[in-house]
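Anyone else keep sequences and structure tokens together like this?

Example one:
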Amino acid sequence: MLSPLLVLGLTWLIAEFYLFSTVFNALAKRWGEGQALLSMTLSVILSALVGIKLIRAQGVKMLIQTQKRLAQGAPPSEDLLDGVLVALGGLALVVPGYASDILGLIVIVFPFVRRAIARRLSKRFSQGLQQGHFRVYQYSAGVQSPRAGGNSEIIDVDAVEKRDPVQLP
């Protein structure tokens, strides 16, 4: 039995190959094979550069917004998730291929798409927490303590390397 993730990945690769060959054939008929190859290569490089720029800009923006919300005592969940989705859209632009570029642009350009994805992810995550599929750990003062179930006894151990004493002459 094939996993759904494998099927999705193979389908995505086939779609990318199909789009590449379709675009190449259309450009080759119009400009010739050499010019078509050059323009396709430049478009892939340009989309990757735009994606890298978006990831950097969104990372800084997300960090500033998160710090502001935390300073106000508010949880950064909405801003953080929106920033992560824009960064993932930028990552999709970095990945070579026209299908990933289209998907990345849709996520970046249309905020209602990001909100819909964010609502769906939040709903699935909270359902997973309620059903016990996820565990949330709080990290404070160097000790991890499970907040949602699990063993509450945690033993913090530091490893010490035992060495033979050095003999001085």
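And example two:
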Amino acid sequence: MLALALVYVLFFKKDKKEELDKMDNKRQQPRPQPPSQQGDAAPTLVLFHAEWCPHCKDMMGDWDIVEKQLAGKVRVLKFESKEQDMAKHGVKGFPTIRFYAQGLGTNFTEYNGPRTADNLIKFALQGGQ
């Protein structure tokens, strides 16, 4: 009986502790900063989205492709917007996609085309045109 208790403590308790540590690490990751709080001159494509938005959910697969295809060419950010962020950034609906040619916090071009990976990549590589 003592041997079984020892096996439980050595193996199962350790696994649970590792799981809890992983969960704590996820909780402690910093929240992405709103675009106006970051600042350098890198061309940046930003998706303002909300978890509850069905249109946002529909386009996440395409957005993942955009992130991979534009890596090293254009900075791509995804910002989960809350109600207070919407007013601050002038976001009126979700998803909102903007291209900041001169970096965040500068003038932007809002994207109004089809929300497909190919179209978004083309938009970003053409400088928001």
